[in-house]
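Project outcomes to date are best conveyed with an example. Our students and postdoctoral researchers have been running inverse folding experiments weekly, and each run begins with a structure described purely in tokens. The record below, which covers 315 residues, was selected by the lab manager from last quarter's runs and is presented without edits.
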């Protein structure tokens, strides 16, 4: 059912909606820009390599980001009219995508922590059990929210918007989901920091040459893995802050900027950080293979030269 109103009391809501649309467009531009920047690496490190689970996760997350941004933008764009059915489908698609992408990012986290803990089966079991508990709970909450949500088209002073009516406490559902996600991300961050600290302690007992080689490895580990987990925790904390009624119901400039920043950071968290981490790990592994091949080639040349010298000296 379409609701039409020219009541001036809706104008603050319209201005906030338009303001957030600009941030949504910026988020989509960031996703596309990052894809263009990393296209060369993607072709070399993803498409030309043997396909694995990480390959599938990378391509799924990377190429679902642009359509997701378009769907979210159409839902809130004031110049686009959507029927109630289309609004409901768009809402369902965006929410299901959120849950699915979050689960895929969790799998990437588990894979990297498993590697950081040198293939510990106990750590793998702990991570999988915790991951399943958190994501199944979040999935059930999302289904409850979707089943109790009805969308309506509002035409307010000539602008179009989708208004969603929910019989339940939406703020509470969102808060529960983000609290559980934050707990999982804080756990991942703590585990990654712990293993890095542990390995840095072990570096002190090694020889200078070995320490330099392993030190480079762990510098990469800090730059990619720990910062990756820390960024997830940071975005989740901002989400929890924004869900407070004092901020989410406010039309102040500060609250609008925070909401817009969270829009961009959430999109970056879902569709940029995960693919970037996979590319970073594969690029580092490729450099290691290249350097080891070059070293083996140099050793072969040196061996051949020594063999030639010794042979000619004996003749």
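After processing, the design step wrote out the following sequence:
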């Amino acid at each position: 059912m379409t609701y039409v109103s020219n009541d001036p009391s809706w104008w603050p809501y319209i201005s906030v909606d338009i303001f957030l649309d600009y941030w949504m467009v910026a988020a989509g531009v960031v996703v596309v820009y990052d894809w263009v920047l990393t296209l060369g690496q993607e072709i070399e490190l993803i498409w030309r390599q043997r396909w694995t689970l990480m390959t599938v996760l990378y391509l799924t997350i990377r190429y679902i980001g642009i359509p997701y941004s378009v769907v979210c933008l159409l839902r809130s764009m004031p110049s686009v009219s959507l029927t109630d059915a289309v609004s409901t489908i768009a809402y369902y698609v965006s929410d299901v995508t959120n849950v699915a992408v979050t689960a895929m990012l969790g799998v990437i986290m588990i894979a990297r922590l498993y590697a950081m803990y040198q293939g510990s089966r106990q750590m793998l079991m702990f991570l999988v059990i915790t991951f399943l508990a958190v994501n199944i709970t979040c999935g059930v909450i999302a289904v409850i929210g979707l089943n109790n949500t009805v969308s309506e088209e509002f035409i307010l002073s000539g602008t179009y918007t989708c208004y969603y009516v929910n019989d339940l406490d939406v703020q509470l559902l969102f808060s529960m989901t983000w609290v559980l996600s934050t707990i999982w991300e804080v756990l991942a961050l703590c585990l990654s920091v712990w293993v890095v600290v542990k390995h840095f302690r072990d570096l002190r007992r090694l020889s200078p040459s070995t320490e330099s080689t392993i030190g480079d490895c762990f510098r990469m580990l800090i730059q990619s893995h720990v910062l990756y987990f820390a960024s997830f925790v940071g975005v989740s904390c901002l989400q929890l802050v924004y869900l407070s009624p004092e901020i989410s119901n406010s039309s102040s400039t500060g609250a609008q900027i925070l909401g817009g920043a969270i829009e961009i950071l959430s999109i970056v968290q879902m569709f940029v950080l995960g693919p970037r981490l996979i590319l970073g790990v594969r690029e580092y592994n490729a450099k290691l293979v290249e350097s080891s091949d070059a070293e083996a080639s140099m050793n072969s040349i040196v061996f051949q030269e020594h063999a030639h010298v010794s042979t000619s000296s004996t003749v």
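The radius of gyration is 25 Å. Residues 295-315 have pLDDT under 50 and may be disordered. The training component of this project remains on track.
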